[in-house]
Design a protein that fits this description.
heterotrimer; A mainly alpha (624); B mainly alpha (508); C mainly alpha (102); A: 624 residues; mainly alpha; two-stranded antiparallel ribbon; C: 102 residues; Helix Hairpins; NADH_UbQ_OxRdtase_chain4L/K (chain C); quinone (chain C)
């Protein structure tokens, strides 16, 4: 079965092609095409995982490009890491496909939506199966395209169109870094294949043909790609705006799969990072800063999807931080659990938004607990999971992340990580209490719980958010054993007892604070905004990052462009036109002398003839 | 038959043009069918050439030489042949021209002349790519000029006369420099070999002469190369010789824009590699830094200017300038991947820019405007055209899976792997070119956002989406771009040996 | 024996008068007459050289005969053109005929 792993991405590709050509005749039935394809992929992914657990890494490639003596090949590979990712991607994608059937049924472009979803699933699975970093990059860009298409799905909304462009462009900046990084890697090692690259790099480092500085540059360039895709500081600005896309898309792409690809990238290229201490430090600090940075913004935001988006950015920061502190398993484990509970939270938010006729402001919600029971309970499970309450999935992975940071020894990073966890618990329950408890403050009463088609996916994901953590607990490190077999990725820390209690304590403290503020109201809600209006304003404006980029990069570029356009027209083309015009004008000037008067012509001819004779005589020496 | 396939291929369109001349001009549909039939036939011949081309064989294939103008001191032959550099471009030419003819079906005015000129143009372009004699090369090079002059001047937009004259005079000036340089190369070859009768206009023979003599000083060689470089720079075009291009593109009819961007620009790049590097490889390597800097300038300058354009077609024209920078950068690296990247870019940009120009033309035909700010929301009224526009833009951005990515990748591998003794500071140029890639994404996405996304103008509610015949150029061009993007081996397979051949000369 | 200088001077004077007339007179008939004058000046030169030139011979006289016959033909053609022109444009003023203008 494992040799047929290439079929996993092909099913959604087929769905994409069918919907591309026949979608407009299928309309609502398009959903079935997409769901069937994803279901097949999921089943196959499960089979492949089971085979991989008992077996070995499987690789199959064909020649893709030759130049000089070099050959680049493409194919597919099933390793432990991507077998796990296959499950995550196919499962979340399948769930989202099912959820969207109901969520999108009012849209008459539902066929287009499902075709995009198919293309995305294909690209994401292709990314996961890639046997070399170039192929990963190819699919990496394709998922970016899908993200662009899906964020801009409601293209007639100017905000959506702008958000789509912003998402593509911002990630593109990182992608160019990644491209340069992998080209440098290729020129240094002569290959794109993971195994060959790592072997050649190790050999090169040993015999001195590859300097550590070069490895650092390569690692940081590659990391730039992850920064863009996983919305790390300072390229995080696109992800909150990307919430303009349909909510199932946010759940699939901007929570569970594509944004996690950056973390995955660091994971697969881990030996390169391990070879450079500087790069690891950069990775760790970027992750930590992103985590705390996004968490603080999430404290004050009022849009349900944007809070979740900032939460995603923050959690991705934690994963990156874990990887940067040699927590290979911690980062990837958190990636997996996060995929489940964040997809759950997003779909829960989608369910709420659908019930409230597309209203997203949490100030206009409240009291949904009694009105949308399943959604509320599953959302609560998701919130508990992300807050890190045992024994939910988030607890186990977050505890591992904290352990990794602690054992790395940088106390500053550890404090940031702890603070982020605290804030995470707080803002998630702020959201929960404001939206689901108290009185309903909106104008449209929701019509009760949504249909089974929408709640079933929530239940599935909620179950996973509960149990997914059990694959790697202090009582059994099954996942760790699976992921690290045959890999030399350093040690992996397991938390001491005090760390576990600290972790629980943080979660409880955050939840308790939110409870006091937004449920019990024993602390006034406007505590922050009244006591620290300046800080509140900065947070509300997301640290003015968008404004900064606009002023620092966009405007100067456009100004330079305008300046050059002026130069091009007036100077460069001016010279061209001047040459042309002066030729023509001089022609005109001389042409004026040709007035058609034969006698003038004759006079000029004679004068000219006499002049020639005179010159000939003078130069010929006839006059002595 | 297969031995003379190149001559058949080159003169087939000319025969078609002559045939059209015998048809009364009222029979528009007959004329169109003959023109398209001829170009399709030429396409099939080029496919046969593609298939019959021996990938494992370096040097010229389907070589044919016939004495033409022979005096005691001057040997000019009709000499044709192809290698891995020219075969892809020959196929590109027939494809783009055929599809451009499909795109020109809406032309109603002076139909007969239009198709005659286009077929003559096709002969000229094919001739350039197969000619091995510099005189013949020049002849075909000039032969492309006249038809394009008339096509822009008669079927163009508002300022067509200015644009066509600028095109003719500017590129004609380039040709004049080229011609003088050719003669100078011939004469210097003669002085080195002890008499003009021993020199040659044949590119391979002249390359031999220049490679094996010390009688021509480095200064002379350098001057010759720079002169050639300027001559081809006008055509490619390279900053600061680019200003004819936006005018010509904006005024030219859709089909002419497609051919102009798709094939004519490639003649500059082809000439630079074939004649410049072919005969003076050492000088080309000597000026690698200059070429790289101009390449980077082209990339960034073209992108910055495209960013501020208000006219969609002019934006695409500047994007062409930007993309031609990749060709220069690839060449400047003097590595196998870099030069292959340059050739890939020639081919890939041929498809992509033709598609972009076709889309702009199709949108213009419906909305009667090319001003970006007046458009918007077209995804709603013409979703299929908008979809293809987006696909073309993405191809131009260099999205993997489409051909542009492969050429950029190869060029980057080339630049970052360049030999520091040939191209110092290569990595710096690579990084700056990387910024250009970001800018490319910026201007194309910005254009897409403002034309096909956003609020739909009420004026454009009732536009007709793609007509059946419009699918042919759209699917054809996009299809070839995807083909090369998904499986570039089919192209690299043909090019590789020739590239190694070129490099072996530089390595010396 | 008269010195050749006198013949040459006469011819030069005649030539210059003719040239002046050709370049300045507006009446086409006068212009034609002046052209004849210039031809005659040349003829005088030729005859003078053929009679007393450094290499005297018959050639100069032959040329002169040629010139006279050509001049006669020329006047015939010229007058014919002149009349045709007058019929067409109702003027034989040189200044009014500027068809050669750029």
């Amino acid at each position: 079965m494992i040799q047929n792993a290439w079929l996993i991405p092909v099913f959604p590709l087929i769905a994409f092609i069918i919907l591309l050509f026949f979608g407009r005749y299928l309309k609502q039935k398009s959903a079935y095409v997409g769901i069937t394809a994803m279901a097949l992929s999921f089943i196959l992914a499960v089979l492949v995982l089971f085979e991989r657990i008992g077996g070995d890494t499987y690789t199959n490639t064909i020649t893709w490009l030759t130049f000089g003596d070099s050959t680049i090949s493409m194919g597919y590979e099933v390793t432990a890491l991507n077998a796990m990712m296959l499950i995550v991607v196919t499962l979340v994608s399948l769930v989202v496909h099912i959820f969207s059937k109901e969520y999108m049924h009012e849209d008459d472009r539902i066929n287009v939506f499902y075709s995009y979803l198919g293309l995305f699933s294909f690209s994401m699975l292709g990314l996961v199966l890639a046997p070399n970093i170039l192929q990963l990059f190819i699919f990496w860009e394709l998922v970016g395209l899908c993200s662009y298409l899906l964020v801009g799905f409601w293209f007639f909304k100017p905000e959506a169109a702008a958000a789509a462009k912003k998402a593509f462009l911002t990630t593109r900046i990182g992608d160019v870094g990644l491209l340069i990084g992998l080209v440098l890697l290729f020129t240094a090692t002569g290959s794109f294949e993971y195994g060959e690259v790592f072997a050649a790099m190790e050999a090169g480092l040993l015999n001195g043909t590859i300097s550590e500085a070069l490895v650092t540059v390569i690692a940081i360039c590659i990391f730039l790609g992850a920064v863009g895709k996983s919305a790390q500081f300072p390229l995080h600005v696109w992800l909150p705006d990307a919430m303009e896309g349909p909510t199932p898309v946010s759940a699939l792409i901007h929570a569970a799969t594509m944004v996690a690809a950056g973390v995955y990238l660091v994971g697969v290229m881990y030996p390169v990072f391990l070879a450079s201490n500087t790069a690891m430090t950069v990775v760790a600090y970027t992750g930590a800063i992103t985590a705390i940075f996004a968490a603080t913004i999430a404290l004050v935001n009022t849009d349900i999807k944007r809070i979740l988006a900032y939460s995603t950015v923050s959690q991705l920061g934690l994963m990156i931080l874990a990887l940067g502190t040699v927590g290979y398993v911690a980062g990837l484990f958190h990636l997996m659990t996060h995929a489940f509970f964040k997809a759950l939270l997003f779909l829960g938010a989608g369910s709420v938004i659908y019930g409230l006729h597309h209203r997203q402001d949490i100030r206009k919600m409240g009291g949904l607990w009694s009105r949308m029971k399943v959604t509320s309970i599953t959302f609560l499970i998701g919130a508990l999971a992300i807050a890190g309450v045992p024994p939910l999935a988030g607890f186990w992975s977050k505890e591992l992340v904290l352990a990794a940071v602690w054992y790395e020894g940088d106390i500053f990073l550890f404090i940031l990580a702890v603070l982020t966890s605290l804030l995470t618990a707080f803002y998630m329950f702020r959201l929960f209490f404001k939206a689901f408890t108290g009185e309903f403050r909106g104008d449209h009463e929701p019509h009760g719980e949504n249909s089974k088609l929408m709640t079933m996916p929530l239940v599935v994901l909620a179950t996973l958010a509960v149990v997914a953590g059990f694959v790697n607990t202090p009582f059994g490190f099954w996942l760790e054993g699976f992921l690290t077999e045959g890999l030399n990725v350093g040690y992996s820390a397991h938390g001491d007892a005090w760390l576990i209690f600290l972790s629980i304590g943080i979660a409880v403290a955050g939840i308790a604070l939110a409870w006091a503020m937004y449920y019990k109201k024993s602390i006034p809600e406007d505590f922050l905004s009244s006591k620290f209006p300046g800080a509140h304003k900065v947070l509300l404006n997301k640290y003015y990052m968008d404004e900064f980029y606009q002023k620092a990069f966009v405007l100067p570029t456009v100004t330079i462009g305008k300046f050059f356009w002026e130069v091009d027209r007036s100077i460069i083309d001016g010279i061209v036109n001047f040459v042309g015009r002066s030729t023509r004008n001089s022609g005109r000037t001389f042409a004026k002398r040709h007035d058609g008067q034969l006698q003038t012509y004759g006079l000029v001819t004679i004068i000219g003839g006499l002049a020639v004779i005179a010159v000939a005589f003078v130069l010929g020496g006839y006059f002595g | 038959m297969i031995d003379t396939i190149l001559s058949w291929l080159v003169f087939l369109p000319l025969a078609g043009a002559l045939l059209i001349l015998t048809i009364p001009k009222e029979n528009k549909n007959v004329i169109r069918s003959i023109a398209i039939g001829t170009s399709i036939l030429a396409f099939f011949v080029s496919v046969v050439l593609w298939a019959a081309f021996d990938r494992g064989h370096s040097g010229m294939q389907f070589y044919q030489v016939v004495p033409w103008l022979n005096l005691d001191f001057l040997q000019i032959n009709y000499e044709v042949g192809v290698d891995g550099l020219s075969v892809p471009l020959v196929v590109l030419t027939t494809i783009v021209t055929t599809l451009a003819l499909f795109a020109s079906l809406s032309i109603q005015h002076r139909v007969k002349e239009f198709y005659v000129w286009t077929l003559v143009l096709l002969t000229g372009m094919l001739g350039v790519f197969v000619a091995l004699d510099m005189f013949l090369f020049f002849l075909f090079f000039e032969l492309t000029l006249i038809p394009m002059f008339f096509i822009i001047g008669i079927w163009g937009g508002k300022e067509r006369e200015y644009a066509s004259f600028k095109f003719l005079v500017y590129t004609g000036l380039g040709s004049a420099i080229m011609f003088i340089t050719f003669i100078a190369m011939f004469v210097y070859g003669g002085t080195a070999m002890g008499g003009l009768q021993n020199s040659s206009f044949s590119i391979p023979q002249l390359a031999e002469i220049y490679a094996n003599t010390d009688a021509i000083s480095a200064g002379v060689r350098g001057a010759l190369f720079l002169a050639l470089f300027i001559a081809f720079a006008v055509k490619l075009p390279i900053f600061p010789f680019h200003t004819w291009l936006p005018n010509a593109h904006v005024e030219a009819p859709t089909a002419a824009s497609m051919i102009l961007a798709g094939v004519l620009l490639k003649m500059g790049g082809y000439g630079l590699i074939r004649v410049g590097i072919g005969i003076l490889p050492d000088q080309a390597a000597r000026f690698a830094t200059l070429i790289a800097i101009l390449g980077v300038v082209n990339i960034i300058y073209g992108a910055l200017l495209a960013l501020v354009q208000t006219d969609l077609k002019r934006l695409v024209a500047f994007s062409s300038i930007s993309h031609m920078g990749i060709v220069l950068l690839g060449i400047a690296s003097f590595t196998a991947s870099g030069i292959q990247g340059a050739i890939f870019q020639l081919v890939s940009h041929g498809f992509i820019s033709a598609l972009l120009f076709f889309m702009v033309g199709a949108l213009y035909e419906r909305t009667k405007t090319r001003t970006i700010s007046e458009l918007g929301g077209l995804s709603k009224s013409v979703p299929i055209l908008a979809g293809f526009t987006l696909a073309a833009a993405m191809a131009s951005v260099g999205l993997p899976g489409l051909s542009g990515f492969v050429s950029e990748l190869l060029a980057f591998i080339g630049v970052f792997g360049a030999d520091a003794s040939i191209l110092p500071a290569a990595k710096l140029w690579g990084v700056i070119a990387g910024i250009g890639i970001i800018l490319t994404a910026a201007y194309l996405l910005w254009a897409v956002q403002r034309t096909t996304f956003g609020q739909l103008n009420d004026k454009y509610k009732e536009l007709q989406d793609a007509r059946p015949l419009e699918y042919i150029p759209m699917i054809g061009l996009l299809g070839f771009s995807i083909l090369i993007g998904v499986y570039p081996y089919i192209l690299s397979d043909v090019i590789n040996i020739t590239v190694l051949d070129i490099l072996s000369k530089i390595g010396g | 024996m008269v010195h050749i200088t006198f013949f040459l001077a006469l011819a030069a004077i005649l030539f210059c008068i003719g040239l002046y007339g050709v370049l300045t007179r507006r009446h086409l008939v006068i212009v034609l007459v002046c052209v004849e004058l210039m031809l005659m000046a040349v003829s005088i030169n030729l005859i003078a050289f053929s009679a007393i030139g450094p290499s005297a011979g018959i050639e100069g006289q032959v040329f002169t005969l040629f010139i006279i016959s050509v001049a006669a033909a020329e006047v015939a053609v010229g007058l014919a053109i002149l009349i045709a022109l007058y019929r067409n444009r109702e003027s034989i003023d040189v200044i009014k005929h500027d068809l050669l203008r750029w």
